[in-house]
UniProtKB/TrEMBL annotation:
The UniProt record lists the keyword Transcription regulation: yes
HTH araC/xylS-type domain ranges (all copies): 14-113
InterPro entries listed in its UniProt record: AraC_E-bd, GyrI-like, Homeodomain-like_sf, HTH_AraC, HTH_AraC-typ_CS, Reg_factor_effector_dom_sf, SmbC-like, Tscrpt_reg_AraC-type_HTH
Protein name: HTH araC/xylS-type domain-containing protein
Molecular function, one GO term: DNA-binding transcription factor activity
Keywords associated with the record: DNA-binding, Transcription, Transcription regulation
A Pfam family annotated for this UniProt entry: HTH_18
Length: 295
């Protein structure tokens, strides 16, 4: 298969993946999805399995479980039955059975102690290549002001970052010094998770401090401290989609945009601004600004 034909083939499957993510709460059939991809319904199931590595029905189930997993942790007061129905399961029994068969925990057990390392393993699909959607990303150059932020430092396996995020949210809710609905939320990866040994990976979970906050963040059980994100020129591009695929957009900046831009990098890592965290967006609609500091 030539490069152009391969890209077209992959793009048609990306349309299918997007359609699935947008319609998880509705019935999804092979016939329907084959029409989205413009493939023959007689061959679609086999094509999907060969491209993605699993059957289309299993992929749909995993995407529904993925959505439900985030909701279980993000909304601890929400009833499990509501989360199950929102994820497209017919009843809580089928949801609980599928959840435990996949992750080895009941939804309630996962909510209490989410094991993100084992969880991530179930969502690795070698056939999903997203580079073709990154060729025409809109990169802008902006100037940002220095920003005082509250920070919870993560050190260790990147698969455990979500646990650090949960602790930071707990601090945010208790302290009142950084409201996610009015103050920005940022992430600063000090290392590349693909090349850094797990124990050495560093990631700062950051929240913009309330303008009324003065001085340093007081001592707290979570270990949140004060830092400053420096100001200056940045290249910025918007990543739309699941957070775990953000590395595709980061690599676009480094591999394709930067060499042709004539720009030089400032001595601060690329960092993320997570948009509209107070809104319940599905994964395909999540938006994150990626900021690459420039001289």
């Amino acid at each position: 298969m030539t490069s152009n034909r391969h890209e077209l083939y992959a793009r048609r499957f990306e349309q299918v993946f997007a359609w699935i993510e947008q319609h998880l709460d509705s019935p999804l059939t092979v016939e329907q999805l084959s029409e989205v991809a413009c493939f023959s319904r007689f061959h679609f199931h086999r094509q999907f399995s060969q491209f993605c590595g699993i059957s289309v029905s299993r992929y749909i189930t995993l995407m529904r479980l993925k959505r439900a997993s985030f909701q279980l942790v993000k909304n601890p007061q929400e009833r499990v039955i509501n989360i199950a129905l929102d994820a497209g399961f017919e009843n809580p029994e089928s949801f609980s059975r599928a959840f435990k068969n996949t992750f080895g925990l009941t939804p309630s057990e996962f909510r209490k102690d989410p094991v993100w390392v084992d969880w991530h393993v179930h969502f690795q699909f070698p056939g999903r290549e997203n580079q073709q959607r990154l060729k025409n990303m809109d990169v802008k150059i902006i100037t940002v002001e220095p920003m005082k932020v509250a920070v919870l430092e993560h050190l260790g396996d990147p698969m455990h970052v979500n646990n650090t995020v949960a602790a930071f949210i707990e601090w945010r809710q208790a302290s009142g010094l950084s409201d996610c609905s009015t103050q920005g939320t940022y992430g600063v990866p000090w290392n590349d998770p693909l090349t850094t040994p797990g124990p050495e990976f560093r990631f700062d979970v950051c929240g913009e401090l309330n303008p009324k906050a003065t001085g340093l963040v007081p001592e707290n059980p979570q270990g949140v401290i004060s830092k400053t994100i420096p100001g200056g020129r940045c290249a910025v591009v918007r990543h739309v989609g699941a957070y775990e695929r953000i590395s595709d957009s980061v690599y676009y900046l480094y591999r394709q945009w930067l060499p042709n831009s004539g720009e030089e990098l400032r001595d601060f890592p690329v960092y993320f601004r997570y948009l509209e965290l107070d809104k319940d967006h599905p994964e395909h609609a999540q938006q994150t600004d990626i900021l690459l500091p420039l001289k």
